[in-house]
Specification:
alpha+beta; about 230 residues; 12 strands; about 30% strand; 3-stranded mixed beta sheet
Length: about 230
């Protein structure tokens, strides 16, 4: 099958139906710009990562997701563990360690802004630099709720989420941002690709406004965040 991620067509040589199901909504007929596949050896290595519970469909899907994500570095794009909502055509990214409440917070935005808002991705969006401007892009990897689409929107701001009793937002301190974002990206093993990704992240931090948001699990948190970043 061929899919399009962040505007790039990729040939995915999958064997199992799960990978096709995951990629529904991202199919394309465009000429592919690179090809990914999974060997038998890679399937067994993935099995070991999954504590020996061999599920060939899940193993293949995981391997393909990583290979597509790493391949996107060639096109100035990298994957970030985050949720993304677009409001009035501009993308707001919420990133944090698992279990912090990214998807819940993104859903508050969807309720608050109604038809002005689009859920771009609920778990693993792609950040891409195009013409010296960063965009955030939907991917097939949308989390267990399967929230998202294939949209590409300008990246307005990034929000570093943490739980709090009150809702408050402030610009993030520059010296802490790289470490927090670094923990939420998929890093390649190739040293040259690592350098490429770090360069993109450095440019991102120097270009896109980044905020710290302490929030409780209330709908008011969406308004506080939006006003602070807008």
């Amino acid at each position: 099958m061929k899919i399009k991620v962040a505007g790039i067509a990729v040939e995915v040589e999958n064997r199992y139906a799960l990978s096709s199901w995951v990629c529904e909504g991202h199919e394309t007929e465009d000429t592919s710009q690179f090809v990914v596949s999974v060997s038998d050896e890679e399937l067994w290595e993935e099995c070991e990562r999954m504590n020996g519970q061999f599920d060939p469909e899940a193993c293949e899907s995981n391997c393909l997701y990583r290979k597509v994500s790493i391949g996107m570095l060639h096109f100035d794009a990298f994957l970030l563990h985050a949720a993304v909502v677009a409001v009035d055509g501009e993308g707001y990214v919420f990133t944090a360690p698992g279990g912090t409440g990214k998807s819940t917070h993104a859903n508050f935005w969807m309720r608050e802004f109604g038809n002005r808002a689009v859920m771009v991705n609920g778990d693993k969006p792609m950040i891409r630099l195009m013409n010296d401007k960063f965009f955030v892009c939907g991917t097939p990897w949308r989390g267990k709720e399967r929230l998202g689409c294939a949209d590409i929107v300008p990246l307005k701001a990034i929000c570093l989420l943490e739980r709090g009793t009150e809702n408050e937002i402030a610009p993030a301190e520059t010296d802490t941002v790289l470490d927090k974002i670094f923990r939420q990206v998929l890093l390649p093993e190739n040293p040259e690709q690592v350098v490429k990704q770090l360069d993109l992240m450095d440019r991102l931090i120097g270009t896109v406004p980044i905020y710290n948001l302490k929030c409780n699990m209330s709908r008011e948190a969406a308004l506080v965040a939006y006003r602070g970043m807008k």
